[in-house]
Design goal:
The chain is an alpha+beta fold. The chain contains 10 helices and 12 strands. The protein starts with 31 loop residues before the first strand and ends with a helix. Mean pLDDT is 86; it is low at 3-8 and 209-217.
């Protein structure tokens, strides 16, 4: 993939690669469904395969639209008769197989997308290019570049967080408004206690019927009942290589940053977009 390039100088070469030469290295999904596939089946695929987007294609394999985790969460689980075609949306970014990684990342960041479909000249769906692909590429080929870079220089400081006693409805609305796929969870003292993500909600069976406005008759569960406890975290002085290594091995989309292992005060967060910006700058 990066043959003829020393690992210590690989970082600057990633942006020059063609996206079709990169996607097989990461967790990009080529899973697709037809327009008549029941949404209950799409929900099962997203839950069991842990994919972030599913392509909807016709009988010839041509892309009709995509369904994301966020879209799945907007549909009541009782709508078993609904089909994929009714929820499919046109992607904000559609990529060509010959585009460079740098160009693709630039388009995706502008559109605030972390996964975009690749479509051939004939309109056929070829797969998703995702920021997970870049994370895996960086973890495999850029250790020498990233092991000397401190997380504090690339993380988002003072990140948005959920409080453990907040209702899921409020946090879901916040995630939708900000287009966040997940949030760190803190207690009343600002101490990191967990993470809550779209996948947590899907895997535990929540959907629109449970996520009504918190002013409604049924406010639903609180964050602490749904969140993933004992989250992995890093420190401002941790290396970016530690970030990509964890993301690549465990499939994390974001890692919270705390001031110390004793206080666990949330001071930042670093996600795949931060890595994508770094490796294609």
């Amino acid at each position: 993939m990066l043959s003829g390039t020393k690992k210590s100088s690989s970082l600057g070469k990633i942006g020059e690669l063609k996206i079709m030469n990169v996607i097989d290295l990461g967790r990009s999904s080529k899973i697709s469904v037809n327009p008549q596939t029941k949404l209950s089946e799409v929900r099962r695929i997203v839950r069991e395969e842990a994919v972030r987007s599913v392509a909807v294609v016709n009988n010839d394999g041509r892309l009709l639209g995509v369904i994301t985790r966020g879209a799945i969460l907007t549909v009541a689980s009782s709508k078993t008769e609904a089909v994929a075609g009714s929820l499919a949306e046109q992607p904000l970014v559609t990529l060509r197989p010959d585009q460079s990684v740098k160009e693709a990342v630039s388009l995706m960041i502008k559109a605030d997308e972390w996964a975009s479909p690749i479509v051939g000249l004939d309109g056929r769906f070829l797969g998703f290019f995702t920021f997970d692909d870049l994370v895996s590429l960086a973890a495999n080929y850029c250790k020498d570049d990233l092991k000397d870079l401190a997380v504090e220089n690339y993380m988002t400081k003072g990140p948005v967080a959920a409080e453990e006693d907040e209702f899921i409805s409020k946090i879901w609305n916040k995630m939708r408004e900000l287009r966040y796929a997940g949030l760190p969870v803190v207690d009343s003292n600002g101490r990191l206690v967990g993470m809550i993500t779209q996948y947590d909600l899907i895997s535990k069976g929540y959907s629109r019927i449970h996520l009504e406005s918190e002013a409604g008759a049924s406010r639903g569960p609180r964050v602490k009942e749904v969140m993933t406890r004992g989250p992995v975290y890093l420190f401002p002085w941790s290396t970016v290589y530690e970030v990509v290594s964890l993301m690549s091995r465990r499939g994390y989309g974001r890692i919270p940053v705390v001031n110390s292992s004793k206080e666990l005060k949330l001071v930042g967060i670093i996600d795949r977009e931060d890595i994508a910006r770094l490796v294609t700058r």
